[in-house]
Write a structure and sequence with these properties.
Number of strands: 10
Number of domains: 2
Keywords: ATP-binding, Membrane, Nucleotide-binding, Transmembrane, Transmembrane helix
Protein name: ATP-binding cassette domain-containing protein
GO molecular function, one term: ATPase-coupled lipid transmembrane transporter activity
Pfam families: ABC_tran
Strand order of the largest sheet: 6-7-8-3-9-10
Number of helices: 23
Strand content: 5-15%
Structural class: alpha/beta
Organism: Actinomadura rayongensis
CATH topology of the largest domain: ABC transporter transmembrane region fold
Shape: elongated
Largest sheet: 6 strands, mixed
Helix content: 55-70%
Amino acid sequence: MLPTRWAPRSSPRWRAQRMLWDGAPRQAVLLYACAAVGALAPVVLLVGVGRIVRAAAGDRQATWPWIAVSGAAIGVLLVGDTVRDHVAGIARARLTFALQERLMTALIRPAGIAHLTDQGNLDALAGAKGALTGFQPANAPLTQVALAGDRLGGLAACVLVGAFRWWLGAGLLLVWLAVRRPLRTVITEHVAALGGDAGKIRRAVYFFELATDPAAAPEVRAYGLGRWTVDRLREHWLLAMAAAWSVRARVYRTVALTAGLVVAANLAACWVLADAVAHHRIGLAELAAYFPAIVATSAVGGISTEDIALAWMLASLPDVERLEAGIARSAVPLGGARPVGDLPRRTIRLEGVRFAFGDRPVLDGLDLDIPVGASTAIVGANGAGKTTLIRLLTRLHDPSGGRITVDGTDLADLDPADWQRRCALISQDFARLPFTLADNIGVGASRAALRAAAERAGAADLVAGLPDGWDTPLGVPGGRDLSRGQWQRVALARALYAAEHGARILVLDEPTAWLDAAAEADFHRRFLAMTRGLTTIIVAHRFSTVRRADRIHVLHDGKVAESGDHDTLLALDGRYAAMFTAQAARFAGEATAR
């Protein structure tokens, strides 16, 4: 398990190591042991090869011990790589799960959903998942272990070179340490510049996903949007990369200067080695050991692709805490700890309720009574605030002004999670859960309860038509996908199951939007029987759905403009009557055309 919070002042490198030692301590010990063995075995191999070459020129019997040593070093390298990969796979799985669990906990902890629409949180979430860069933060500590092994191997190579000339080994070590710091600094700055504007990168990623999404493919092609999406991807990507290009000159300059220093140092080392061979101070045996060792010293301070990948991973790691802080800042606190108990019994009342998204008011002084045990319909033009009203009633948001009461008790005083369990909700974008059909309707529910909910929702034929019935996986690779109308029946069955098992308020936001005409007519025939005795709140554009409600409210300009049953509102000849007449005329025209 990852720690709840890392030390706020610690560096990302230290945080990554804390993540490894807290999340996979046994694997950490094994990985560092493998790294140490993998670093020292090549040096042993170099020494062994040198001794073999020397012995081969004289007493051949003396080569056998060194052949055994060299063979053992090769075996250790091969076995060590296998063990390291296996242990790293276990550690990676543990760290990935722990990081995902931490992100999920942060996202689902708030009772409301305001934090899920905050752009800063979305950027931090994408960074924490590695979605913007392709580098998973959970891999950072494993990459650090691998690089630590490389550094140790480079240090051992410096020691081996020092056995030839101590000052040469020390000099190469100092050169590599001197160039490593500026190289790492410019790489860190370059990565920070590349990922600095996560919003622009996320928009570029969106256009890529749009162009490659099978669901969007028909319309992208039908409307000739293919070239347009590619152009938008290029536009937003270039904007995102502008900051990185501004530091390119310094990156190239630093790389050129350090490369010049490294080349000069290695040429000098090779000259010293060649001079020693030319003057017979060392033989071919020593040359076979020292020359590869000079090359291997680069691991002390050289920058590899793993270093660059690590920089990306470490840049993403603080996004975890940034996301948690952003959620704490942007999530609207939903107070209240009072149990809901048997509420509501009489009335849910909205008094002067106001709500706005940013500077845009949606509800402005709305007054509304919702009687318990009756059906209430909410209608209005697009953008009138119908879905916002639903979110307030289910406490996904709290009003910015006014209040909502339940039998006289302020809804803000009630436990939000307890209240939400009393609400069975079908939203416009209903969930398509990647579970079996049974778990999509009710996790752990009995088959009898599932059958009852499916029959009431008109989904019994759907169950019969699936290859494995209730156990058919939906929406996952290897499973079955459903049409939107079928998914809506599943969502309706889920809400009806919840209503039978503790939920007292059924909230339907466009319940028949994806049903065909026959299915919609069947839904209406069943509707009163399905919802009898329930407090039902319906949001719909189709008046064939809302006309059967006990009470209908028309929203306009953030307030209730008209209220009454269907016949009363038609007689009033106001907004409801105008909308109903227009819709009826459209359907009549379509029927005539057919």
